[in-house]
Amino acid sequence: MVISLVKQVRKERPLIHNMTNTVVMNFTANGLLAFGGSPIMANAKQEAPDVTRLSQGLLLNIGTLHEDQVQAMILAGKTANEIGIPVVLDPVGAPATTYRSEVCRKILDEVQPTVIKGNAGELAHLVGMEVETKGVDSTGKGDLISIVKEVSEEYGTGAVCTGEKDVGCIEGDVFINETGHPLLGQITGSGCLLGSLLAAGLSVAGDTSDKILATLNYYGQAAERAASRPDVEGPGTFLPRFIDSLAAEVEHAG
Amino acid sequence: MVISLVKQVRKERPLIHNMTNTVVMNFTANGLLAFGGSPIMANAKQEAPDVTRLSQGLLLNIGTLHEDQVQAMILAGKTANEIGIPVVLDPVGAPATTYRSEVCRKILDEVQPTVIKGNAGELAHLVGMEVETKGVDSTGKGDLISIVKEVSEEYGTGAVCTGEKDVGCIEGDVFINETGHPLLGQITGSGCLLGSLLAAGLSVAGDTSDKILATLNYYGQAAERAASRPDVEGPGTFLPRFIDSLAAEVEHAG
Amino acid sequence: MVISLVKQVRKERPLIHNMTNTVVMNFTANGLLAFGGSPIMANAKQEAPDVTRLSQGLLLNIGTLHEDQVQAMILAGKTANEIGIPVVLDPVGAPATTYRSEVCRKILDEVQPTVIKGNAGELAHLVGMEVETKGVDSTGKGDLISIVKEVSEEYGTGAVCTGEKDVGCIEGDVFINETGHPLLGQITGSGCLLGSLLAAGLSVAGDTSDKILATLNYYGQAAERAASRPDVEGPGTFLPRFIDSLAAEVEHAG
């Protein structure tokens, strides 16, 4: 499944409209290109819906919000729903401030995501559960399965909780991905990039939970392969090898 | 010519005002530093013209537009025209949305660029020709020479169409650059960075087409040298070696 | 002192609110993570004070100003003063434009920084002294000690002037750091990242000048170690090794 998904993405080169935070834009674009997608980024409300209309997937990531972008995200999200392309919502730091929390609600009132992905604290927050968080990073443990089940049910969407293990749920079915590497947690935007790859993975034909799981699996495997390289000695040297791993011929993906 | 241009840039260290998209800012700044220029970035209309006034070249790249930036770009572009420094316009994704298309026209109504650079789809769009495009990436073939001739004539400017081969035109003379490497197409912002380097290359004394061609040639050669390194196995490991190549002692540039 | 400071930062993992320029956000986040801090970035006035309230340190860097961000910076800075967390102000390019200069004054009228850090030209400008500058980079020599003394006295703050040697002053005491490497000057944002690390270093218990000096020392040492690696041949390959060095086990810090 992993190999066939990545091959299909590379065949179709889906254009993904990344409405994402300014910290991770470059890394997201390079990572998505490596995976096989084609990135486009546009945040102005004057053009966001038009860009979505050209695209095969939409990512809404609220990591560095500003007022205009919120309006543009809602317009783009509605357009994506209209034309039937997948929408991934990443509620970065939703529990951190009232503003982020309210923006999430507003987006969720107007836009139907295909998948909501976040860490435990972010997802728990969306369903009124509490886990210990620190800034945009979740440090709590909580019951991950119950969190993703609740999110999935309340919002009628797929839910993916990333962490040491990734736990997902869609229509009551729970799935778990165990690939990955601790170095992913030491580079900024590894979760944000995954959101973009999920949008790309979801854009091709196939069963939704299969596509999510294959994308998670490939992503974690790429990290494992990169981390195993002898010249990788920390997060700095991990990053270029990780991009290479994402871009590798899929036969090597194991 | 290539060596003398790069030496001159490194002697003068031209300050280049990069009004560019948020995806590529960091890569552009590092690449321009490596080439020998000095980057400055300012997008607020309150200071953009003042920053241009300090600079030896201006880049206008519309990759992630927002309303305030458009006004600031026009003010900066007019200032650049007034003080007689080169202006490079990169109409990123111009065919993708009505908004981008209109912004391009508005800039071109008010600002005289020294060079317009883009891919085939972007340049063709500016002269009402059609080539197949996908998001911000051009996939069409079209007649590149006729595209750059038309753009150059219609806007009274140099025109550079980047791609497998780079094709340029200024005052009726056509020139072609054949250096480069496919890995450039796998990292985001390689075209955007080139725009900044063109502004730096154009800022020193000399014939315009010579300076453009030398910059294109050096850029492609740097990519070739980087790609040939044994530790480069994909776009991730290519990127740091490419920056090193751009920064290399120019005697090694061949 | 260096080792104990870095160990303490890694134990506490201070959340640092980075209100910084769009050029260096990704590099700042990765560098701060490597040092041992936890980055958060939020520039909207709707949430900036709330994010500051969660944080253990605040960085105000004016490298790519826009109007909304100025208001948000002042709100965040006042909040930081209220709750007693360290504030680092980096007046990037203050002498370059009237707007930047005025924004600096406005921030300094309303916010009490713990440390102002900049290059010679930026600091000199804040106290009405003149040194030769080029864009955001200082090229002048001036009397660094008198500059930091003046800044420290006029604003009742620590002052750090970065350059070949870093010269600092707090409450009349002058200190000098001699670690560092010329490659730091060839990558964009090395000064900006240092501002974020200073906020993290200042957030733990201890004497202010000790903490500043230890942070400067560690930063420069990390650059020296990275530059000495055999595979580092320029600014491109230096960058990943530098992040690794910042992240290294502190026993190796020497």
Automatic annotation (TrEMBL), chains A, B, C:
Pathway: Cofactor biosynthesis; thiamine diphosphate biosynthesis; 4-methyl-5-(2-phosphoethyl)-thiazole from 5-(2-hydroxyethyl)-4-methylthiazole: step 1/1. Its cofactor is Mg(2+). Its EC number is 2.7.1.50. It catalyses: 5-(2-hydroxyethyl)-4-methylthiazole + ATP = 4-methyl-5-(2-phosphooxyethyl)-thiazole + ADP + H(+). It is an enzyme of class 2 (transferase). Transmembrane segments: none annotated. Substrate binds at M41, G189. SUPFAM superfamilies: Ribokinase-like. Belongs to the Thz kinase family. NCBIfam families: PRK09355.1, thiM. Catalyzes the phosphorylation of the hydroxyl group of 4-methyl-5-beta-hydroxyethylthiazole (THZ). This is Hydroxyethylthiazole kinase. It comes from Halobacillus karajensis. The gene is thiM.
